[in-house]
Design a protein that fits this description.
This protein is of the alpha/beta class and 307 residues long. The protein folds into two domains: 7-246, Spore Coat Polysaccharide Biosynthesis Protein SpsA, Chain A, CATH 3.90.550.10; 251-303, no CATH class. The protein is 40% helix and 19% strand. The protein has helices at 17-28, 48-56, 72-81, 101-111, 145-151, 166-172, 188-197, 224-227, 230-246, 257-262, 269-279, 286-303; strands spanning 7-13, 36-42, 62-67, 87-92, 96-97, 117-119, 122-126, 130-132, 139-143, 162-165, 201-204, 210-214. An eight-stranded mixed beta sheet has the order 3-2-1-4-10-6-11-9, sandwiched between helices. The protein has a four-stranded mixed beta sheet with strand order 5-12-7-8. Strand 7 and strand 8 form a beta hairpin. Helix 1 (17-28) packs parallel to helix 2, helix 6 (166-172) crosses helix 7 (188-197) and helix 7 (188-197) crosses helix 9. The longest helix is centred in the last third of the chain and has 18 residues, at 286-303. It is globular. The model has no long low-confidence stretch (mean pLDDT 95).
Length: 307
Amino acid sequence: MAAPAQISVVVTSYNYREFVIEAVDSALAQSRPPCEIVVVDDGSSDGSVELLQARYAAQPLVTLLCVSNGGQLSAFQRGLAASCGEVVCFLDADDRWAPDYLERIGALYDARGDVDFVFSDVRLIGNESGRQGYAEQAQDLGYTVLATWVRARWYGAPTSALSLRRALALRVLDLPPEMLASWRISADNCLVFGASVLGGRKYFLPTGAVDYRIHGRNGWWHDQARAGQFPALFRSRSLINHYAQRSHLDVHALELAKPEFLSRPAPDWATAWMYAGIAMRAPAPWWKRVERAVAMLRRGLRGNGSR
């Protein structure tokens, strides 16, 4: 039996002095300890660095990187480069984990060597309360290359609920310097879109163990209205296209709609309908496209309990 995967934690922080200790302490308190915690301070000017140095100077698991302010994507890259674990979990400095988070995530990676990317639900704390998650139950999402490339589907969660195998993370975060300015915030899009288009197998595992803090400086949370506006949509589409070009995707990739759909053990009707639409765009004879689409719709209907 293979040894359990070593897990690295990358904490990114910028002027979150009032929260960062709670975040790091939550990583240190895990029932399945990480092999390391890399804290990337992205040029804070609020005394965060001094606080972190004083608290963790004697803690061998914690490495503090103090860098000039480059934004979230840059911090992700620096943290990944300084880590060594087979699995990398990201944690925003204003969030926190329950003690069993890494144990539950790690158990899935240990049991499923084919899974490359695991994301969880989040519990809202601070100024709001509630839960956000992809679904109520765990779901093996299989591969999501075409769903993301064609439909810009976002199979993920906020940063603190994202994890991926190191080999995939290195490919996802291998982005050119000119993209750093575009992703100073909301760089979790790079992790989510990149993992999909570069061929990672995804799994949604609700844990109830990720606390996502809502406060006055959550850039993404307080800017959701702009997420559906053209500039944000264009930025996301450009990112997806960048990864698609690296994967050499072209119209012939649409022929793979059915195999990608079948990588999901229990697809529902909505998923079947989406993939049927993708299959109809493929450069195959019309009867072949229809045949594939109908086969997927039938399977989706069975998975939906014939409703």
